[in-house]
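In response to reviewer comment 3 from the previous cycle, which asked for concrete evidence that the modeling workflow produces usable outputs, we include below a single protein chain processed end to end. The sequence was submitted unchanged, and the resulting structure tokens are shown without manual editing.
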Amino acid sequence: MNQNATKKRAASARQSGAGSQKHPEDAVREALRPGQSVELLKALHILTRDGRLNQDSRRKLKQVEHLVQFIEKIVGELAPHAGALTLADHGAGKSYLGFILYDLLLKGQDGATVYGIETRPELVERSRALADRLGFARMRFLNIAAADAVQDAALPERIDIVTALHACDTATDDAIAFGLAKKAQAMVLVPCCQAELAARLRMNKALQLSRTPLAELWRHPLHTRELGSQLTNVLRCLYLESQGYSVTVTELVGWEHSLKNELIIARWTGHKKRSAGERLRALLDEFGLGALGPLRFAALAGTQ
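The workflow returned the following structure tokens.
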């Protein structure tokens, strides 16, 4: 009797569960925003080839939505310089971020334009082809380095938002320099592979600190790399504050399984913090990194 009752309950539960399962297309519609391009998500491998969700694609969608939420708030707050919003995405790669932002936030705004800046010509051509196929007419892709973008005539004199998602090593610094030159109203940065400063720590041994307990922070190569990464981003934040931006540092959780999840959001206020520049210089001097001043923090030159 007990076994029969158990089997009946199990069969009933299976039938109930089967009846409550959603059709795959319904699950996709519920997960996406209204009007979101299914073809784009398939091209970016966020949806499967047949337009369905699996465990991996659900994770990707959640990550995309997390990042978009930060930028969506910024887009809603600022007034475009020329009446139509402009966004420059540095180190664009396959323009994953640019396509998602255009599709969700900008394609419905008159004149809003996304510029993808990438050094690999094959990725630029692929992005151009995808934009043409999807009818994303106000996406531009430039085969140039971030450091050269300020002088490129294809870009407008001013840019409203600068993004750099995992722009490797000093490409993030180039994106910041670009944003300052273009008087960006906001910058959204997820730095990656900050190797330059760690190499200088190893080279100079931070002479002023070499005979103090603080030298233990970079005695081991792994710690040198981690300290270099941390210090690099601290200096970047101080630099942005010294140039008139308010800075928020938070975490972009779980993006593409990467440990590089520090998200720096800078908003233009026009209030340049002199104390931030002073602390930046003090840190450079303390760690024997003075040579980086004119190279990475050129806007501080000649100011006290």
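Residues 55-77 form the longest helix (23 residues). We consider this sufficient to address the reviewer's concern, and the full set will be provided in the supplementary archive.
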